[in-house]
Structure to design on (746 residues):
């Protein structure tokens, strides 16, 4: 049976609602919410859950799969994540801005919708809002005639990409914030965005909110905001402090193994859970209640619900550590393989990915981000270009006329296989046209019928034996499974449990290009180091270089562990027998310049790369979490470096990070002393910190001392911790961290 186009779909819904079902559960109608009656049996509740379906706007949004966030604004120029209300906005001047470049880069990478931070928490508006002076028209940008919301929405429309807006409810600049007038101000701004820029497909309300410039908190009139959006842009989904789209619960890019789109609601009042607001905006409004839990919608979770609502997950994550562009994160852009892993764990776990790609100060998506996005696209295209299940024969335990298993492979998500009513176990054997090696399976339920499958597994025929090679719980709109290579021409999906008759609209069998792993994955060493390189594709050939150049099939062929005696950057590619190529990947190995003895202990949570971190020639970035810093919690850094022989020493330095927001402070002083024998030390310098410690902006600072060419073999570096966070700090009295990296001796 074919599912009709969206308008037919609505007619079909009306017919279903008008009809009385012939099943035991005569009251069960399809819709995007359902009320649970006190006398509903557990079975009736499950049947109701299995018939909750997405609204048209939900479904259109879910099909996008890949959506992008664009964080851009005054923060880009201030180099901060959260700006302040008093920022000087004349700095805003992206001299080379080209929003068409943003759109083409993201479109080429497969993204279908772009959401712009029209206003972030600092209150600066990227459009000429009539309701505040704190906007783009009051800057030098395009002589005050700029409107990035307009330019970007037009650029999206031109190439057929959808457009959405992020409007931060929290506003650190607006004077009315914290009073009822702010709700009027906010709806005025919302009206501008929703009426002047054509179709808006998503409105994103952030959960982060705090005090305004006057120290007051705001009581948001969520219902008024939602009603306005429904009136002005009925096709837009409202995320994540909103009724349509749920925050997945982390900003890591990884969804849940078991991801239900049907969740328990707390209200039985149909007005509250109906179209305009599936959730109740009560105290603390949408502070995610249990959105971080592992299980949100299992049988156990829905048994005591008052209602059930379609509330699917969106997975937001940034391509860089920060949401806004910071030059010092250029080396921390997520790799193509990391982005692909995120894709498998977001889109492939029944979610929509919202990947943030922040333009830089020029007003362009940076070359580093472009390279990663291109690699990401290559990996997905190479993987999904051939579905080995195409033209497969099937043997089914059960199917109904019009919904046969052949529809699994027709690349039409609206046709599907299903069984007779009330069947909750089934199996389909798939006979491919020939034997294939594969490592990825894609499954889709027809969610227009409801999300139903609770447990499944896959077997493959190995000679005469069926062996299980992968399994899962929920499927939903899309489920991607990865596993070590399997070779066969026959697999079988066994649906172990379904809430009611299962549906499947697609099944794909794929082979991803080879992926290389280093062991260890970079790091430092004292004398020599052995590096093992492996590949997930059997019999793939691995080629490498040691000088940072990109290898090809003429480079050195890997045939066993590489023994390093000096620092090296190993770059590899793998080529499989069927000529699929990996992307080049590198790891940096650094030979330590000196040996080091620890008098105090670093914290196990932040060991850097271990005991050679401070002398390995690799510097920590502005990001405390880059794996290069060594962290000391509440205690001093006290280490002795052995130069190996007595030497003339002209200068000694050591480097520290200040990231006050993360409880990391510069040392109050760093004391350097020198010794010939490792016992009797002579003080050569004490450098006191003179940098302010109350800034939100992270800072890397080197503490240096000139030693007037004193000679010595051992150098002691003692960085004094301030001990506890100072009284003005949010963590006053708690242990302060020191983050230290490279010690240099000249
Ligand atoms: C958070 C915000 O505070 C971040 O700055 C960013 O906008 C992210 C998407 O949401 O809550």
């Amino acid at each position: 049976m074919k599912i009709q186009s969206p308008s037919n779909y609505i007619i079909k819904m009306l017919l279903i609602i008008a009809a009385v079902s012939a099943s035991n559960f005569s009251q069960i109608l399809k819709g995007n919410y359902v009320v649970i009656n006190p006398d509903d049996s557990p079975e009736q509740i499950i049947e109701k859950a299995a018939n909750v379906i997405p609204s048209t706007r939900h479904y259109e949004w879910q099909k996008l799969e890949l959506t992008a966030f664009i964080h851009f604004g005054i923060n880009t120029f201030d180099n901060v994540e959260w700006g302040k209300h008093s920022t000087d906005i004349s700095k805003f001047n992206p001299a080379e801005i080209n929003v068409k470049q943003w759109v083409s880069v993201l479109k080429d990478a497969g993204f279908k919708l772009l959401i712009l931070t029209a206003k972030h928490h600092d209150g600066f508006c990227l459009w000429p809002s009539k309701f505040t002076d704190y906007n783009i028209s009051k800057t030098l940008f395009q002589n005050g005639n700029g409107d990035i919301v307009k330019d970007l929405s037009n650029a999206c429309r031109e190439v057929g990409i959808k457009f959405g807006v992020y409007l931060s409810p929290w506003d650190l600049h607006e004077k009315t914030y914290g009073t009822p007038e702010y709700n009027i101000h906010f709806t005025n701004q919302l009206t501008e965005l929703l009426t002047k820029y054509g179709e808006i497909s998503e409105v994103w309300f952030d959960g982060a909110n705090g005090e305004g410039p006057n120290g007051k908190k705001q009581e948001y009139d969520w219902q008024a905001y939602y009603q306005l959006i429904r009136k002005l842009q009925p096709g837009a989904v409202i995320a994540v402090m909103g009724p349509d789209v749920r925050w997945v619960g982390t900003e890591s890019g990884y969804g849940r193994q078991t991801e239900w789109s049907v969740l328990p609601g707390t209200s039985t009042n149909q007005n509250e859970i109906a179209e305009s607001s599936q959730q109740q905006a009560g105290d603390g409004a949408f502070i995610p209640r249990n959105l971080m839990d592992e299980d949100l919608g299992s049988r156990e979770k829905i048994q005591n619900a008052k209602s059930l609502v379609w509330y699917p997950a969106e997975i937001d994550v940034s391509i860089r550590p920060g949401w806004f562009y910071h030059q010092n994160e250029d080396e921390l852009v997520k790799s193509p393989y990391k982005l692909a892993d995120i894709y498998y764990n977001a889109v492939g776990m029944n979610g929509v990915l919202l990947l943030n790609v922040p333009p830089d100060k020029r007003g362009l998506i940076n070359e580093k981000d472009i390279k990663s996005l291109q690699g990401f696209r290559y990996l997905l295209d190479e993987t999904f270009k051939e579905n080995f299940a195409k033209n497969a024969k099937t043997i089914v335990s059960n199917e109904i006329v019009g919904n046969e298993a052949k529809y699994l492979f027709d690349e039409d998500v609206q046709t599907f296989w299903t069984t007779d009513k009330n069947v909750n176990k089934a199996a389909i054997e798939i006979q491919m046209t020939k034997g294939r090696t594969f490592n990825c399976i894609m499954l889709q339920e027809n969610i227009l019928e409801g999300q139903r499958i609770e447990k499944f597994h896959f077997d493959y025929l190995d000679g005469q034996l069926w062996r299980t090679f992968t399994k899962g719980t929920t499927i939903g709109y899309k489920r991607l499974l990865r596993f070590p290579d399997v070779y066969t021409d026959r697999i079988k999906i066994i649906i172990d449990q379904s809430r009611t008759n299962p549906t499947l609209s697609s099944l794909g069998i794929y082979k991803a290009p080879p992926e290389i792993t280093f062991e260890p994955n970079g790091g430092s060493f004292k004398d020599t180091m052995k590096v093992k390189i492996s590949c997930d594709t059997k019999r793939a050939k691995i080629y490498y270089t040691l000088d940072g150049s990109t290898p090809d099939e003429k480079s050195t062929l890997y045939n066993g562990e590489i023994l390093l005696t000096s620092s090296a950057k190993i770059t590899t590619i793998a080529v499989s027998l069927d000529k699929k190529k990996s992307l080049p990947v590198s790891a940096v190995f650094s030979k330590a310049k000196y040996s080091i003895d620890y008098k105090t202990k670093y914290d196990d949570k932040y060991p850097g790369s271990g005991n050679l971190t401070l002398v390995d020639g690799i510097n920590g970035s502005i990001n405390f979490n880059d794996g290069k810093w060594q962290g000391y919690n509440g205690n001093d850094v006290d280490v002795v470096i052995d130069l190996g022989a007595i030497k003339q020493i002209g200068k000694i330095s050591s480097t520290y990070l200040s990231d006050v927001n993360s409880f990391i402070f510069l040392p109050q002083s760093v004391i350097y002393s020198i010794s010939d024998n490792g016992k009797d030390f002579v003080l050569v310098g004490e450098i006191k910190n003179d940098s302010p410690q109350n800034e939100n902006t992270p800072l890397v600072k080197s503490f240096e001392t000139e030693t007037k060419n004193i000679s010595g073999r051992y150098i002691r570096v003692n960085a004094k911790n301030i001990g506890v966070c100072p009284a003005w700090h949010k963590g006053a009295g708690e242990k302060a961290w020191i983050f230290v990296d490279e010690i240099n001796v000249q």
Q: What stands out?
A: Residues 367-384 form the longest helix (18 residues). The two ends are 77 Å apart (CA to CA).
